[in-house]
Amino acid sequence: MTTRRYQPSLNRQQEMLLPSRVEDYVSQNNTVRAIDAYVNTLDLKELKFQHAEVVITSGQPPFNPAALLKLYLYGYLQGIRSSRKLESETQRNLEVMWLVEGLLPTYKTIADFRKTNSTALKAANRDFLLLCKELSLFGGETVAVDGSFFKADASKQGIYTEDKLKKQLAALEKKITQYQDELDKQDATDDKLAQGSLNEDKNLAEKLTLIKQKKAEKEALQQQLKDSGNKQISTVDEDARLLTKYGKTVAGHNAQIAVDAKHKLIIAEAVVQDGNDMQQLAPMLEKAQEILQSDSLDGLGDSGYFNGSQIKICEDQNITAYVAVPGKSKRMVEKGRLTREQFEYDVEKDCYVCPQNEKLSRRGQHFQKGDKNYIRYKSDANICAECPLRKKCLSEKAKSKQIDRWEHEAVVDRHKQRMAENPGKMRQRAALAEHPFGTLKHRAGMNHFLMRGLEKCSGEFSLMVLAYNFTRVINLLGVDYLRDYCAQRQQNELKSSQYA
User: Fold this and answer.
1) CA-to-CA distance for 285 and 320, rounded, in angstroms?
2) 426 Cβ partners below 8 Å, 6+ apart?
3) pLDDT by residue (tens digit) across 20-79?
4) Which of 190, 214, 234 finishes a domain?
5) Does some domain include residue 351?
6) How far is it, in rounded angstroms, from Cα 179 to Cα 488?
């Protein structure tokens, strides 16, 4: 009996009869067949992809945008985003050769497609959301929103704030004064050692010139920042910002998503410059509502989204918000101080009642603070003077307690009551919204942008979301089902266009 230590391998010199068609190398349940079928359903001209309209011009014809979109969708599904790596895939990967039908675009052509089709990529992502809706993959009842910082194609050193520029200018000014003093000392010295230090004089003068040039550049940036009215200015990606969370700062953009509860599909996305999420609740939930066309929608968000004005907008749009209430009074409780939450508002009598059952009455009319209107309520100074809780309630100089109530504070009161009655909503939010970002960042490696500029980064993020949703739909329905459904969808669209 012959013993074999290893599995038998291929003899490289042996002649073999291989399939003569690329078609035979791609199985019927291969993911590329679903990608091909889906992209073929798209009206690229209507989605405003460049070169989607056939135009006869001189020179070489452009590559079919459908092929480049298929290539990118395949790449993002596989975690391949580099245009150079995608170029390599077209030359060695049989799946890709089948998908793009043997086309060999250069990395520059591939990169330009992503760069110049930001709006079209967002439209393609929206089309896939509508396809998911056709397939009844959305629950349409509960949506969770979340935000995460994605690193931009820029460094922290290339982004400046007013304070940072002031410190750098002060340091440069100090250096210029130091060099100038050294030059003056050398000019005033006539001994032989100083006369022989010509090289030092020359180097010092050159350094002084360079420092003055740097100062002029910083002053120009300072003026540019002032004229723009922004708080930051970036020299590489002009839309990138320094974003800080949990003590860590990144140069990047704030990516927002809204996730449907049924299958954790992302139904809305956005890229913003804000360093926090306080203004993003209503815009994201409105986008979700537009896709879902839901009459009643629950929107879940963490404490970073807590904003009375945003909650009111949601209420006006028939969206029920569940946002974690931040514990702003925690430090006061630890110090043994009374918090605002301990003063109850009496709706019928229009007054606040303190823990000692004394009233804080309304004083005057509305007054404006920021972009909101408030009403002031004050206690009686004589009563406060004799109150046993005075030291816990008032500062040493204050004579009475004062509370400013927002004119729509009832919205916030209803929201807090709703949160108290539904303690499980935040656990549901975490399970829904944190999963997609974890998948994008850690499984697919999409934790940074390759594009520059807010609009281009938005297009790239839509491509990331499309790849994420496409993967989930395949996992839910299977390649065969999605491929066949897209093929049928394409036939239906062709029939409808013929009868139109």
Assistant:
1) 10
2) 300, 302, 322, 324
3) 788 888 999 999 999 999 999 999 999 999 988 877 777 788 899 999 999 999 999 999
4) 234
5) yes
6) 77
Is 76:467 a contact under the CB 8 Å cutoff? Answer: yes
Using DSSP bridges, classify how beta strands 372-378 and 359-369 pair: parallel, antiparallel or unpaired: antiparallel
Residue 439 per-residue DSSP state:
I
State pLDDT tens for residues 349-401: 999 999 999 999 998 888 988 889 999 999 999 999 999 999 999 988 899 99
Residue 111 and residue 28 share a domain: yes
Determine the Cα–Cα distance for residues 306 and 277; give it in Å rounded to an integer: 8
Report residue 302 as tokens: 């963490």
| Other residues' Cβ atoms within 10 Å of the Cβ of residue 280 | 23
* Strands annotated E in 261-301: 266-272, 297-301
* Total tally of structural domains belonging to the chain: 3
- Give the span between the Cα atoms of 428 and 449, in whole angstroms: 29
Structural domain harbouring 372: 330-409
Going along 246-381, which residue ranges are E strands? 248-260, 266-272, 297-301, 319-323, 344-346, 351-353, 359-369, 372-378
**In terms of Cα–Cα distance, which of 137, 424, 145 is closest to 258?**
145
Cβ atoms of residues 470 and 73 within 8 Å? yes
Answer for the pair 323, 147: CB distance below 8 angstroms, yes or no: no
pLDDT of res. 197? 45
Pairing of strands 232-234, 159-161: antiparallel
Domain boundary among 234, 265, 296: 234
Two tokens, residue 132: 């998911």
pTM of the model: 0.88
Radius of gyration of the chain (CA): 32
C-alpha dist (Å) from residue 36 to 28, 43, 136, 448: 12, 14, 22, 27
How many angstroms from the chain centroid is the CA of residue 45? 28
Bridge partners for 406 per DSSP: 374
**Domain shared by 114 and 179, yes or no:** no
* DSSP code for 451: S
| Beta carbons within 10 angstroms of residue 226's beta carbon | 12
Classify 146 as helix, strand or coil: strand
The phi, psi pair for 201, rounded to 5°, reads -60, -45
Q: How far apart are CA 399 and CA 384, in angstroms?
A: 7
* Same-domain check for residues 470 and 383: no
